[in-house]
Amino acid sequence: MVQSIMKGLRVRLPGVSPAAIGGSLAARLLATAMSFAAGVIAARDLGVHGRATFAVMISVPTVLSIVTVLGMDNANARFAGTSHTAYRQIVRWSVAFSLVPGSALAGLWLLLGHLLPVVLLGVPFRLALVAATMCPVTLLTTLLGTAEIGRGRVRTYTLASTVPAACHLVGVCGLFAARSLTPTSCFLSALAGQLLCAGVLLMASTARVHDDGERVSARTFGSFALRAYLPNLIHYGMLRLDVPVIQLLAGATAVAMYAVALPVAEAMFLLPTAVALVMFPAVTSGAVDARAAARIARTVFAAAAASAAMVAAAAPVLIPAVYGRPYSGAVQVIWAMLPGLVLFSTGRSLQAYLAATDLLRPVITATVIGGMVNVVLLGVLTPHYAAVGAGAADSAGYLVFAILIGRGVRWGVRAGRHPLARPAAEDGQPAPARRPVGRLVAKWVGDSRQIVYPRYVRSMMLRRAHLVAAGLVTTAGVGYLAMAYGPAVSLVGAAVGIAVLVVACLLIPDAGLYVLAAAIPLSQSNVGTSLISPRRLVALMLVCLLGRLVAGTGIVWPKLIGALITTGTVGYMAAASAVVGDTGPKGTGNWQYLLLTCAPLLLVPLIAPPGPALDRALTVFCYGSVILAVIEIAQAGSIFAMKADLTPADTAVLAITQEGTANHNAVGALLVMAAAVLLRRCPAVRGRLTRLATAASVVVLGLGVAYSLSREAYLAGIAVIALYTARRSLRGALALGAGAACILPLLPEAIAARFDSILGGAPDANSAVRLDLWSSALRMFEAHPAFGVGYLNFADQLPAYYQATGDYEVMFLQFPLLEFAHNTYLTVLSQTGLVGALGIGALAVLGARRAWSAIRSGDPAGEAALLAMVGAGVCSLFGEVLLVPPLLAGLMLIILAAKPVPVGPSRGPTPVPVPAAAPVLASASAPVAR
Questions:
Q1: Which residue from 229, 409, 586, 597 has the fewest beta carbons nearer than 10 Å?
Q2: Which residue has the higher pLDDT, 486 or 320?
């Protein structure tokens, strides 16, 4: 009977030892039981306050070690079996890493706790000092244990992992018998167990398992560690970080229900964790291939489903019996979590296979998207369904993770190119040597990527647009929380969303560029205006820059002439603003705001080289602008419908002055630039459906410009269309004109009235004030021709130069709010003088030259850049739209996408790619709300 069962398990678990899995699972259950027994004794003797103090003391080293490990545990398991030389190298690295960063992070926690006692979580500083001593020890046991797993000695790791729990239980029992059990002594018994475990693992490291061989490259080791760090960190937080969020969204009762269900969820993780421990070295040694991994995962799924069924049936009886009737609500929480936990058990086994074969990209993708789904649903469901909603959110996140992981291994099984499985090595026997680390490993990793994901599947699954879409959903969820549940929830939600986006931008190549492209149109929506401030936009660009360094792609250095003109112009304007303007705090703020405004000039060229990534980013930018146009049409249309009793002109004015609406001039200019890009791309798009979608997007953007009610955007759109048609045949111009003539009669009367105010009649009060501001700016330039009056000093100087010539009341003007001349060119002249105007003009010439060179070389992005520059330049005649940092960043992305490269086959050597030119703008600085 036993033999038949073992034989069936070997068939269902190919390449791994069922005895090893059973031993690992039994050891974990034993350790859990001993920890539970020690916890019960400590809770009874220490009391509530003492037990809480001990809980914080024992949890801080665990959390700090998880944060500090930086993926070294996975890297140890991956490379320790390469050779004995590599293993000894990894042991030395582990000891050094545990002593230095492990102690440093604990010291930082103590330092912050000394300055801010709240960081110590209620633990006295004396006890916090004791708790900090465990941090390097816990980190060392983790790293040495995973190294033993990596070289196939799972049994050694399993036995060593029971030492801390056993020592802690013996110590607690002895202290309890001696009547000397205190939080400090209880903690010292746990510390003794960790020290003993570290000693056992250090002694085990002296045993030789493999022959000597190559060393591990530090770059290869670190790259794998960082890529493996994110999934483990997110998995750790998906359950444990839910508690504070539930506390904020649903209250203490929901936290109590979730806390009762949490141990059940962690118990469900025991089986997949045990399988992954045994499976990892078997995969790296070649004993488990993709087909075997899929069969193991199916077996784990069946076992997890059976366990979940038993838990679901027993929970209504056991939960009230153990915890009491008030905790009966935790049963529904457990039921909501079980489906996701079963699927996660399957995905955890497949994750071990992918990680062991260096296929970490699908793991990272699945983890990030699953975590984002969890965060968004947690914020949406928890306020309405309390702990049950939080359980359902966890289950949905695990479902997404399991599906994406399963698809990766599924295509690996279909490819069928992995070598056949070989029998696993028994513990105590020399394990098969691994593939050497170096060039062969790099080639093997590349081949593995081709095997697991065929080309069309890789294109579908690993496309960064999916991650960007998930990031946008997370941002939308954060905005919803911010509006619905007050500042406390807004702070937590924003912190979670920002953390996810920052990690994704750092670890996923070019993800930051896509997020930046999506943030530009989002910043001009009603919600995004408060979410994306100039400071946050600059922070995002810095994260993008750091992400390029982490990814190894490096900084894109611009041409020397462009860099000198850009830095010289920005440096001059900042110095002039600080010297010429007010020397008080206001003047200091002025030049600081100037640097924030000019940040896109300095940073965007360093992170946006021309190429496919930037082209995709512009696609994200354009279709984000299409969404913004739809929102603008819906908002303006609703106002037109509600205010039908007003005149068309008054309705238009009401629509653009409605409280909470975005700057209509900035929105109109942004839509014009996006329309310029798609208008040029449309003829070159392949496929009828894609071309039809692009043409429809151009139409939507055009309608968005009309509904923005921005007169300068109307003129800019006309200029863009005129330039576009002038470069084409008469038939195309006639077709475009006929289409516009058919659409114009269908527009609301308010839009027609807004357009009529441009063509004829006496200027209204706003136009008259604008003309007087222009003349005032010219007078300022005449008085200060060289250096101007300084950035943001226009309002202070305006009363001395203002002369009213229109039919309006000057007394109603608010001069402190008139910081610009409503004309970018006159603003540059009046505030930066002739020197600043020459610098900005030189940047504009560089941009136009770059666009024209790209047009001559046949690059369609060149004409798109020229059209966008014309549209932005016309808008700048009647406002300062390019003094808004997001719009400046968007224009620079469009210009930098132009690639002036030669056309046609080259008979000589491959030409060197042209480096990115310096940023260009036809304006200067940007208004920033203070």
A1: 586
A2: 320
d(C-alpha 593, C-alpha 844), whole Å: 22
pLDDT of 29 > 70? The answer is yes
- Mean pLDDT comparison of 129-133, 148-152, 756-760, 877-881, highest-scoring range: 129-133
Q: Is the pLDDT of residue 891 over 90?
A: yes
DSSP state of 525: S
- H helical segments located in 508-611: 511-522, 528-531, 534-551, 560-580, 585-607
Q: What is the pLDDT of residue 241?
A: 63
Among 329, 164, 344, CA closest to 239: 344
As a whole number of Å, the end-to-end CA separation of the chain is: 79
Q: Is the distance from CB of 923 to CB of 828 less than 8 angstroms?
A: yes
* pLDDT given for residue 871 in this prediction: 92
Please tell me the predicted confidence (pLDDT) of residue 428. 42
In this structure, which amino acid lies at residue 350?
L
804 to each of 772, 783, 877, how far by Cα in Å? 6, 19, 21
Q: Which long-range contacts (CB under 8 A, 24 or more apart) does 375-378 make?
A: 375/474, 375/477, 375/496, 375/497, 375/500, 376/473, 376/474, 376/476, 376/477, 378/242, 378/245, 378/249
DSSP code at position 431? P
Neighbours of 222 (CB within 10 A): 15
Cβ(449)–Cβ(365) under 8 Å? no
Q: Where are the alpha helices (DSSP H) in 709-823?
A: 711-726, 730-743, 749-759, 765-783, 794-801
- pTM score of the predicted model: 0.51
* 566 compared with 462, residue with greater pLDDT: 566
Report the chain's mean pLDDT, rounded to a whole number. Answer: 76
Q: How far apart are the C-alpha atoms of 599 and 538, rounded to whole Å?
A: 7
Q: Are 346 and 297 in contact (CB under 8 A)?
A: yes
**Distance in angstroms (rounded) separating the CA atoms of residues 261 and 268:** 11
- The C-alpha atoms of residue 774 and residue 823 are separated, in whole angstroms, by 7
CB 572 within 8 A of CB 598: no
Token reading at 503: 């990690």
DSSP state letter for 476: H
* 366 close to 465: Cβ distance less than 8 angstroms: no
- In the chain, the amino acid numbered 177 is A
Go through 562-579 and write b for each residue having 16 or more CB atoms within 10 A of its CB, e for each that does not.
bbebbeebbebbbebbbe
Asked if pLDDT for residue 464 goes beyond 50, the answer is: no
Give the residue among 6, 14, 4 at the shortest CA–CA distance from 278.
14
Structure tokens at 88: 């000894």
**CA–CA dist 930, 928 (Å, integer):** 6
Task: Answer yes or no: is pLDDT of 460 > 50.
Answer: no
Amino acid at 702: G
pLDDT of residue 505: 72
- pLDDT average, residue stretch 317-335: 82
Q: Is pLDDT larger for residue 425 or for residue 496?
A: 496
The closest of 271, 275, 265 to 339, measured between CA atoms, is: 265
Neighbours of 639 (CB within 10 A): 20
3-state secondary structure of 706: helix
CB 119 within 8 A of CB 56: no
Give the tens place of pLDDT for each residue, 649-663. 778 777 777 766 678
Bigger pLDDT: 315 vs 39: 315
Tokens read off for 250:
């649903």
Q: Which of 196, 132, 209, 191 is nearest to 162 (CA)?
A: 196
CA separation, residue 866 to residues 26, 80, 737, 860, 869 (Å):
69, 56, 21, 10, 5
pLDDT at 57: 82
CB 213 within 8 A of CB 82: yes
Cα–Cα distance measured from residue 786 to residue 780, given in angstroms and rounded to the nearest whole number: 11
Of all residues in the chain, what percent carry a pLDDT higher than 70? 76
Rounded Cα distance between 710 and 874, Å, is: 12
